[in-house]
Every structure is written in structure tokens, then in C-alpha cells.
Write a structure and sequence with these properties.
heterodimer, A: alpha/beta, Rossmann fold, 2 domains, five-stranded parallel β-sheet, 11 helices, 14% strand, globular, B: alpha/beta, four-stranded parallel β-sheet, binds iron/sulfur cluster, binds FE2/S2 (inorganic) cluster
Chain lengths: 324, 176
């Protein structure tokens, strides 16, 4: 093997979109492939866990891990890759903040199992079979990873050096990140590799965002014809732009959809959802409980709205339950 | 699946709820002083944080209090129309209404989060509100979020940090 820096990609609890975003580098992937050796990438290349175990500790230059951590196997792989890599990057919203999979933290594991293997309309399971962690087959022990009680971000399980935000990160940010790392000038540990300002700053509709918003009604995107030229908040559509980090170049807004927050907060905000809730509510037009409540009915699922990509990293992390 | 169950809230006769209170400097904080000076007895379960206006209470403070182990959060501000910064208490009320819904769907009982308008002269009301909240929280029992997370994180220790032995080719095959 050549002595080019070694790059690894791995996936945990994710949808595959992050892998797709690597492929979306298009011809730039040749630039990346020319500068590095990709030595592990289960979605595209035939390497096994054994091959990674055989490598020397710290011999991988950078590993990009996408997906939330939800099973014992993902924990094990994340730790293995951590040990073998100099730099670990949490790639995409799920590794960064838990992502959509972490909305599962609104339920306990037994509720989820009950639903998936029993109650879901498409399931027929009169024997109430549940996945087993191991069983004997032809005198061999066959095992399955365990689903954990909590969906976690990558940095709740291993030490993470950098974060590439987004659901998924844009090819442009990935390319920049690879070039930055190859240049040898490492940003401070913990840096989120995207501009540290609010999305509104790079939004083409910024000029039409009123400085004195006043909400009389909240609409979900399917409830209103959205004016393509005006700030979504000014039309009463919940746009997470003010509490979301820039870097995607306002992709969703270009598609005439509100930002749902996938880039996470800027460095000055600890809890993205609480921050958004705060700024939205401050600008509600009513002063009495009944009036306020009526307007708030336009946000029927606050957890799913404000923590769509980040329940695992929010201050509360999960729904509080008596049993776990 | 292993079905370990942890019972989090063991009943405890000596349980004393912890309340974090954010009191507006111009009204409720002064009232709590007055309560002290007038030797009104209220339960010692409250950590009072003085802020310049109830509108200054960032919802992140409230979540942080719960996440750090508070059993309840109490906010005290000036009566409607009396806020020194004119709109602060209305802002707080609007946040409160939505936060309450959100906390409710995250399993935090309504009684744990309370907003009260208490003017500087209402020392007596400080006392009744706090005592009432303490009583209600005692019935609910501890919230213990940090403990809950610690218990859940025990599962992270199941896989040892040590190098796992590489699987033999045969074992690896049997895994799929
Ligand atoms: S709120 Fe949304 S639409 Fe309005 S300026 Fe910000 S990102 Fe753009
Ligand atoms: S607009 Fe918001 S949700 Fe859409 S890609 Fe950008 S950060 Fe993500
Ligand atoms: S000054 Fe007391 S609530 Fe604003």
C-alpha cells in the first residue's frame, strides 16, 4: 500500500444519505481518491472488521463516522475505529447530534420492541417472537447486537475531534474538510466544520425578514401557499434558520421549505430547540393565556419540531420515564 | 433482549425536593426578602437566582436546571402590566406556555414547572407558593435526571475498552 494518508468511512444508525453525500462529491471524489487511500468503507469496499483490527493503532489518518450510536455493535466499531485513527470526525446530523434516530429517545426500548414486533399494522406475530441476542445453530453460536436503551451521539460514546454537520453534510463542506485536514493545519479540537453564524445570514430571503416579527398564527408547510420571495418566519411558517448554523447555503429555503435545523446550533447556543422556542415565543402577538395557547396550537409537536435532529444532544436527552 | 428494569424512584420518607427559582429583582425577589424579614416560614428547598426581569429567563436555564438535578423550577415575575421593561413578563408567559407543553411530552409533570406573578409587597404569596410546590413535589417524588442518565450509561461499560480478540474466519462467517 502507498504511503498516502489513510481515510476510513463507517456508518452506524443512519439512513445511508451520508454515504450518498460522499458519492455526491462527483468528480471531486477523484481528487479525494488521488490524495488519500480509502482503507475502510463498508458501503462501497470489501474490507472486514478483521482488516481494521489488524491495523496499527493510530495508523488511520482520519475516520468519518456517520449515524447515531444505538447498538452494542456500533459502540464496538466506533471504539475500534477511534483507537486506529488520529482524527475522528462525526459526520452528519446523527453522529453530531443524534439525528432523526434519536427521536426514539421519546420512547423506552420495550415500547419500541413492542411496537415493531407486535403492534405495527404490518406485523403478524402470534408467537410474540422477539429478536434474541444469541442462539445455537448447527452447534455454532449465532449472535445479534443489542439495541441500547438510549440513542446516543458519537461523542457520547467515543472522543470526537471534529463535526461535519448536516443531514447530510454537503459535498462542498466535505471537500473543504478533507482539504483542511490534508493541509495539516488542524482547527481547534471540537470545531464544527461549518461557518459559526446563523443560517439567516446566508439566506437569500434575509432582506425580507422583519426585525419585529409578530406571530398571529403558525402554519405547517402544507397548510399554506408559501410566497417564494419572503422570509418564511414572516409568513408564520416555523423556520429554524435563526437558531441553526449556516453552511448549507440555505438549501431547504431554495426549495421553498423552512429550515428544520439539521446543521445544529452555533457555538454560542447549548440547546438548539430551547433557543428556537424562546425566540419564536417572544414574538407571539398575544398577551393572555388563551390567546397564546390558540396560536401555539399551530405547533402540535414541539419536540419533533425543535429537536428534529438533536434530541440526543439536547439538555434533557430523552423522555423521562419511571422505568427504563 | 435482556429486560433489565431499573426502578428509578424508590420511595423515601426523608425525600426533600430541590427547587430552582428564578425571581425578578423588582418584584418576587424583593418579596422573598420581605418574607425573610417578616419571619414568614417557607420551606428551605429553594435555591433562588436573582434576575433583572422574568423575561431574562432563557428556556435553556430551565432545561439546564432540570438536567442538573432540580425536581422543580419556579419563576417569579411582576404582575401583567407591571414589568419594568414593559414586555418581559409577557415574553416569559409565552415561553412558559410552550415549554410546559414540550416538557409535558418529555415526561416532566406539569407541577414541576411553575410561573407566578408576585409583587414586591406579596411576601405572604412567596411563602404559600413555595410551600405548596414543595408539597406537590413530595407527592411526585424525585425527578433525578442525572441519576437516570448515569444508570442508562452503565450499558456503555458492557463492552470492555480492551482490544477485542479478532474473530477467526469461521466465526465471522457464522455471524452473517
Ligand atoms: S428565518 Fe428562514 S427564511 Fe427567514 S431569513 Fe432566516 S433562514 Fe431565511
Ligand atoms: S436549510 Fe436547514 S434543514 Fe435544510 S439543509 Fe440547511 S440547515 Fe439543514
Ligand atoms: S421586571 Fe419583573 S418581570 Fe420584568
Amino acid at each position: 500500500m502507498s504511503d498516502k494518508p489513510k481515510l476510513a468511512f463507517y456508518w452506524c444508525a443512519s439512513c445511508g444519505g451520508c454515504e450518498e453525500s460522499v458519492v455526491d462529491l462527483a468528480e471531486d471524489i477523484l481528487m479525494v481518491a488521488g490524495a488519500v487511500d480509502i482503507i475502510f468503507w463498508p458501503v462501497a469496499m470489501d474490507f472486514k472488521k478483521n482488516d481494521v483490527e489488524a491495523m496499527e493503532d493510530g495508523s488511520i489518518f482520519a475516520a468519518m463516522i456517520n449515524g447515531a450510536i444505538r447498538t452494542s455493535e456500533q459502540e464496538e466499531m466506533a471504539r475500534l475505529i477511534r483507537r486506529k485513527s488520529k482524527v475522528v470526525i462525526a459526520y452528519g446530523s446523527c453522529a453530531h447530534m443524534g439525528g432523526i434516530p434519536s427521536l426514539a429517545n421519546e420512547f423506552t426500548r420495550s415500547q419500541i420492541m413492542e411496537y415493531m414486533y407486535q403492534e405495527a399494522p404490518s406485523v403478524v406475530n402470534p408467537e410474540k417472537t422477539r429478536p434474541m441476542l444469541s442462539f445455537k445453530h448447527n452447534s455454532q453460536n449465532v449472535t445479534l447486537p443489542e439495541i441500547r436503551n438510549l440513542v446516543r451521539t458519537l461523542d457520547q460514546v467515543i472522543d470526537v475531534d471534529y463535526y461535519l454537520p448536516g443531514c447530510p453534510p454537503t459535498p462542498k463542506l466535505l471537500k473543504q474538510a478533507v482539504l483542511t485536514l490534508l493541509s495539516g493545519e488542524f482547527p481547534p479540537k471540537g470545531t464544527v466544520l461549518s461557518p459559526d453564524e446563523a443560517l439567516c445570514e446566508e439566506c437569500p430571503r434575509k432582506e425580507s425578514k422583519p426585525s419585529d416579527l409578530s406571530f398571529t398564527h403558525f402554519y405547517r408547510p402544507h397548510e399554506i401557499l408559501i410566497d417564494k420571495t419572503k422570509c418564511l418566519l414572516s409568513q408564520g411558517v416555523v423556520c429554524m434558520g435563526p437558531s441553526t448554523r449556516a453552511g448549507c447555503e440555505a438549501l431547504c429555503i431554495s426549495g421553498n421549505m423552512p429550515c428544520s435545523g439539521c446543521f445544529g446550533p452555533t457555538s454560542r447556543v447549548r440547546d438548539q430547540g430551547a433557543k428556537m422556542l424562546s425566540s419564536l415565543c417572544s414574538n407571539i402577538s398575544e398577551n393572555d393565556e388563551t390567546g397564546i395557547d390558540k396560536i401555539l396550537d399551530g405547533i402540535p409537536d414541539p419536540v419533533g419540531t425543535f429537536y428534529r435532529y438533536g434530541l440526543a444532544t439536547s439538555l434533557l436527552r430523552k423522555k423521562i420515564t419511571e422505568d427504563v | 433482549m435482556n429486560s433489565k428494569k431499573w426502578r428509578l424512584n424508590m420511595p423515601d420518607k426523608n425525600y426533600e425536593p430541590k427547587i430552582v427559582a428564578f425571581f425578578c429583582n423588582w418584584c418576587t425577589y424583593t418579596a422573598s426578602d420581605l418574607a425573610g424579614v417578616s419571619r414568614l416560614k417557607y420551606a428551605p428547598n429553594v435555591k433562588v437566582i436573582r434576575i433583572m426581569c422574568s423575561g431574562r429567563v432563557d428556556p435553556q436555564f430551565i432545561l439546564q436546571a432540570f438536567a442538573s438535578g432540580a425536581d422543580g423550577v419556579l419563576i417569579g415575575g411582576c404582575h401583567p402590566g407591571d414589568c419594568h421593561y414593559s414586555e418581559g413578563n409577557y415574553k416569559m408567559l409565552r415561553r412558559f406556555r410552550l415549554l410546559k407543553r414540550m416538557l409535558h411530552s418529555l415526561g416532566i409533570d406539569d407541577e414541576r414547572f411553575r410561573l407566578e406573578w408576585i409583587s414586591a409587597s406579596e411576601g405572604e404569596k412567596v411563602k404559600t407558593v413555595i410551600n405548596d410546590m414543595v408539597e406537590k413535589l413530595k407527592v411526585l417524588g424525585p425527578l433525578s435526571i442525572p441519576k437516570q442518565i448515569n444508570i442508562l450509561d452503565e450499558e456503555l461499560k458492557e463492552i470492555s475498552e480492551e482490544h477485542s480478540e479478532p474473530l477467526t474466519a469461521r466465526e465471522e462467517l457464522s455471524h452473517v
